[in-house]
Design goal:
globular, single chain, 6 helices, 2 strands, mainly alpha, two-stranded antiparallel sheet
């Protein structure tokens, strides 16, 4: 599948979910599900946003990394999707507030 075809297929939320499931990476699916829940979106919608964000705002280094991942993969489409989702998840982690512990040792998110 060509990269342009992959990106254009993500206009449909159900297709996005099907393609995400086809990667067969449970850990990635769990992290995408957590990100989707945090934004109160269905998993397919979050994945669609992640792919759209990558295709519209990735810098040259991110595109080069994606192309390298695809060149060395037995399934370039899945490699591209995985790279796009991992980029979105990394951006989400970078923007998340730090985890703090209160006096009872319980974790909470907040400002440091």
């Amino acid at each position: 599948m060509l990269l342009g075809d992959l990106i254009s297929r993500f206009n449909d939320e159900s297709t996005a979910l099907e393609m995400l499931l086809a990667i067969d990476d449970l850990g990635l699916l769990v992290r995408v599900n957590e990100a989707a829940e945090a934004k109160e979106l269905p998993v397919g919608a979050w994945a669609r946003e992640a792919v759209g964000s990558f295709s519209s705002s990735a810098d040259d280094a991110q595109w080069l990394g994606l192309m390298a991942a695809c060149a060395n993969a037995s399934d370039p489409g899945s490699a591209a999707l995985r790279r796009m989702l991992e980029t979105a998840l990394a951006a989400r982690r970078a923007s998340a507030p730090p985890i703090l512990r209160n006096e009872k040792g319980r974790q909470s998110r907040g400002k440091a």
